[in-house]
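Archive entry. Fields below.
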Amino acid sequence: MDLAIEKTSPARKPLSLLARIVGAESELKKKDALEGYLFALPWIIGLIVFVAGPIIASIYLSLNDYSVLSGATWVGLKNYQRAFFEDPLFWPSLGRTFYYAGAVVPISLVGSLLLASLLNQQLRGTNIFRSLFFLPHLTPTVALAVLWSWLLHPHLGPVNMVIQTLGMEPYPFLTSRSTVIPSMIMISTWSSVGGNNMLIFLAGLQGVPTELYEAADMDGASSVRKFFSITLPMISPSILFNLVMGVINALKVFGLAYVATNGGPNYGSWFFALHIYNQAFAYFRLGYGSALAWFFAVILIVFTLIQLKLSDRWVFYAGAN
Amino acid sequence: MAAIQSVHSVVPADKAHSYRASQRLTRTLLYVLVCILAIIFAFPFFYTISSSLKGQWEVLLFPPTMLPEVPQWQNYVRVFQVTPFGTWLLNTINVVVLSTSGAVISSTLVGYSLARFKYRGRDLLLMVALATMMLPGQVTLIPQFLLFNKLGWINTIRPLWIPSWFGGGAFNIFLMRQFMMTLPMELDEAAAIDGASRLRTLLTILVPLCKPAIATMAVISFMGNWSDFMSPLIYLNSQDKFTVAVGLNYFKAVPASTEEQFYHYLMAACVISLAPCLIMFFSAQRYFVRGIAMTGLKG
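PREDICTED_STRUCTURE:
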């Protein structure tokens, strides 16, 4: 419609300033563009107030000693210096977080892919099994932590009762420094392996064209060969997505540790997100907390960018050149 | 299946027979495997529900029993008596309803703007939406806390739902935008010829067609808000303001009753906090599963 009008009016009036600001090609489209801004306005306000503003404020805070009562005192990079060289919990909590993520991500990625492949075998009742596998993922984090800290309780928990019935010593699970993180890895795997990752893989597997498998059958390819030469490359975009999200979520681990052990025993599960939370909201060191948060954000962003960069080498997009 | 049949036609009968037998064996083994996995995933739920119906002594019985001797339904009543669980539930419902409706309404508007309008900076906004998905929430948490503190919103549920009325989150915006892009532009043009305003076009033409995307978004944001723990933990500090998630954590640490062992009540509380997510999942499974699958394929 707009086009027709433009063609019939060869001597167009010069565009008004407002039209040029909003990037419209004609006066008619100006109204359209303005309406576009209007529809996006709540979000633009939200971006400024709840995202951009806080990001800038948080950089500023990280360079200050800040408490709610006394306000800000400029300290420059001292908060960062303190984190890297003086805070005895900083490096250990970072190491712990990587230990946890380094185990959870590959285990649940491989596990989810296996579960999805299993559900893709056209077994009868696949939908019911899919729902059952998904159940743990629906559990709210707090309920998950409460539930498992009871199941794994050293004396009263049913798991240890069974272990004792079998004549073995009760296993400490969440109550010993050396077993607390492996126990949490197990709990997280249980709760996430049949969750979103599995559904995404399943959708990916169902999207692989059957002709590819038929052609491979003609050539007499084995199932293992088909899996590695057809399935994996075809679903590599899903793998990348799950990998990136998995790393971010694992590094951000908070609720499970906060509720089940509160970072204990003896700082055994004191993850980095817990460190930030406690510095900022338990001790109200808001400046120092902001510095920690920035450091953490940089780590997450760098990790994500590295993964996206490396993905050129192994992710295959069907339909792309 | 076609491939299997074509194999049948070229191999001799006895070979085809053994092929079918081995197929049947594989199937059986797969079934066994799937059933074992289903038990691993479902058993803790079954055991939680069973424990929530046991008596105080029965929960700690050695060796543990599968089912309660007599189901103690009053445990579920007692939970509401020994803790302010009713208040926590109401608070949570408030937060969930307000924030989910905010997210649905505002991300529909913003998605519409990004999908159907042309203006300077639109593509930049889309890039910003994607970038904010990558940014960890921790960075904005502390300044947001100070902002809400200034506004006097601490220890109210306002910080938990008001922000979702301002855009509804990058993920939801992106979902709506992508979905609207799949709808033919001719629909909008026809409405414009009939003299409908852009808002009217959205409400009467596009929104009814976007129902699957809206349902997906509603389900996912319902669950996210229901189980959110960190924000209510930071913003709420008196018991009467707690949501279920924070309340459950509090109840776990500080048993409200003087009874020493309270695991049967704790398990009943867990079941109550879990139930809405289960109900939501089973009633809207279709939308939920498709929504999750969509996010993965788009990424």
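CURATOR_NOTE: The radius of gyration of chain B is 26 Å.
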